[in-house]
């Protein structure tokens, strides 16, 4: 496998009254098409890391060491710290897109959904005709499970879940190779959140993008991630595939984090794993899930 993103020895400080070492010598690779979960308590540096990758960090944040390299599927590498101006702006939606917490509230209230989706194409795909833009916008909406007749709607006419889906559609508009999601669904109720996550796991299988998914919700990450990185006080303290992290956590902090979610002892439904997930209630388990169940039974 070849990584699509390589974070090498990245350190970030906030130069406030006292300097905060928010991210400390983090090295991490994101494989093409994988979902990498990033977990850890509030203030451990997750968002700072996400902002650094998308080059959205602002003072007083300062990168004190390291770099982030994007390896395009077309075969070239880009050191993100070297991008500036138009190159950076183009890169940001085209290759790496993001959805942040509360993103659904950043839709423009006075513009119809169609105008907001089409704006992405006007800016980044100027060669498309008006009719082509309209068709693509409709396709995008349907891709995230929203009927295309909602193109005419204004944001306030949509539920929170639908608005968040529109934001995800927008992030996917240019078929990015990396999608960074920082607590994208925490404002939504659990059912809607799960539906949206299902959609994302299905879409990444279809479109082949990789995801960095950030949340406090470790049980959720265990369901959707291929690998999980556990972060604490700016450091990645453990990184492993989801099943190993769940069944054989090595770091005491990971163990503590796992034990702080009572739902992990079994009452939660089946895993949402990509591909064969028709079921939300976990009645049909794949191999991984069966192993998890078996381990759970043993430990009872
Ligand atoms: N603008 C800032 N100035 C000074 N310190 C900051 C600033 N932004 C963040 N920090 C500090 O950097 C550290 C990492 O913050 P960050 O927001 O990355 O954490 P997080 O893991 O995303 O937390 P949460 O789960 O609450 O979103 C924290 O100690 C925070 O107080
Ligand atoms: Mg955060």
From TrEMBL:
It holds the Pfam family oligo_HPY. Transmembrane segments: none annotated. Keywords: ATP-binding, Cell inner membrane, Cell membrane, Membrane, Nucleotide-binding, Translocase, Transport. GO terms for cellular component: plasma membrane. It comes from the Bacteria. It is found in: Cell membrane. CDD domains: ABC_NikE_OppD_transporters. GO terms for molecular function: ATP binding; ATP hydrolysis activity. It is a peripheral membrane protein. Its main location: membrane. SMART domains: AAA (SM00382). GO terms for biological process: peptide transport. InterPro entries: AAA+_ATPase, ABC_Ni/Peptide_Import, ABC_transporter-like_ATP-bd, ABC_transporter-like_CS, Oligopep_ABC_C, P-loop_NTPase. Residues 5-258 form the ABC transporter domain. Belongs to the ABC transporter superfamily. PANTHER family: ATPASE AAA-TYPE CORE DOMAIN-CONTAINING PROTEIN, OLIGOPEPTIDE TRANSPORT ATP-BINDING PROTEIN APPD. This is Peptide/nickel transport system ATP-binding protein. It comes from Kribbella pratensis.
